[in-house]
Structure formats: C-alpha cells, structure tokens
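User: Can you model how calcium ion sits in this protein?
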Amino acid sequence: MNARLERISSDGISMTQKARILIVEDETAIRAGLVDVFVYHGYEVDYAEHGEEGLSKALSGLFDLILLDVMLPGIDGFEICDRIRAQDRQQAVIMLTAKTSDEDIIRGLTLGADDYVSKPFSVTQLVLRVQAVLRRSGIGDTTDREIRLYNGLLVDTENLSADGGIAFTRREMDVLQYLCSQAERPVPREELLIKVWGYASHMEIETRTVDIHIAKLRRKIETNPSNPECIVTVRGAGYRLMLADESEAK
Ligand code: CA
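Assistant: Here's the modeled complex, given as structure tokens:
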C-alpha cells in the first residue's frame, strides 16, 4: 500500500517512514473503526476524542494528515482546521462531514481543508481519498519559482505567497502550478483531481472540491473575483490560467 512517504532528514539523507494520521472523532465506534482500518493499511495512527485534544495534537506537527470530524464536543472541526491553517499551510486535512450538509462541505474547504468525505462513508473510498491526498504531486518541484499572473500579481511558489501578504495552502499552490504548467490550455476539473489531488479513475469524483479551491484562489489573486481574468472558466472545457504577457512587462 502507498502508506510510505519519502522524507529528507535534517542531514539531507532520504529515509522512508510510515505516513502518520491523526483521527479526530468523538463517536467511539467510528473512531475505533477508523483506527483499525488505517493501522491495517500500514499507517501510524493516533486519535483524539474531543476538540481540545484534537487541536493540541493537530498543532504538534507530528502528523502528515488529519482526518477531522466537524461536530465535536468543545472546539469543533472548523475551528481546528482554521487554527491548523494559521500555523501550517502544508499539512493535509480531510474533513468528515454530514452527507446532507453542503454548508459544512463548503465551509470546511474554504477554511483550507484539502478534501472532504461525507458520512456515512465507504471505508474503501475513504482510504483511497487519504492515499490520494498524501500522494505528493511533485508539481512544485519542476516549475518556476515565480509566476506572474495576468493582472501582474507575482506569486512566489516556494514560499506559498504573493504580493500584499497573500498566503496559499500547499494544495492551492499545486493547483496554480499545475494550471501554469498547462498554460494557456483549459484544464478539466477531472484532470485537476487526478493530477493535483492524486485521484485514480475508479474513485468517486468530487468536482466540488476543485470548484471551491478555485473560488478561494480567485478571492486571493483576482483584482475582481466576480469577474476573473487570471483563472478563467472556459465553458465545457475547464479552468485556464492567464499569465502576464512577458513582452509587455515593464
Ligand atoms: Ca462527531
């Protein structure tokens, strides 16, 4: 199974370690089931039963991925996600949301979760989703350090930032960099899920995850988010990144 990540130690030696997952879930039966499943799949697993414990473990920096229930006693999953993102924009977060709640899904992704899984969930789909989110795209390793967008905004891909104190999550930057590598071709959502999120073709496709990430990116980079000119929607074809015309650069 794909539960091992390459890591570079402080002295630059590459080592292989089990990926570490934190499960934050207050319902005992679900939590115990999730722990069993991920231990079985070769992950190193820890868990938290309530919000306070979940938050302090999540902020410890010890985990590669956090499976985060929304409804928790004490601090809820949204606040935990928000606090994680304030401290760490690289860490992977998957929210566990109620099936019927579109609001929860949108809010979780807007706060910086990488993806979501609706309850009740299929364990197989959840494991696939976790594997996908942990699979680093490697997109950031091959493209330019800086991206100059159509409106002139300069994006620093290594520092996950842009002019004016704009900060991106790892996933948002992967989206930008993938679109940039395909510029100026429109990229279908399904292709983004496969290339950036690591989805496989047999997984349930959640295009909403892509749309919400794009909406969030637009709020950060567009001069007027309701009339986007950097990430444009090409009807029936996907999203297209518009770059500054270098020949017109000042
Ligand atoms: Ca709960």
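A couple of observations from the model: Residues 26-27, 69, 71-72 surround calcium ion (CB under 6 Å). Helices lie at 28-40, 51-58, 77-87, 102-110, 123-134, 170-181, 189-195, 207-221.
User: Helpful, thanks.
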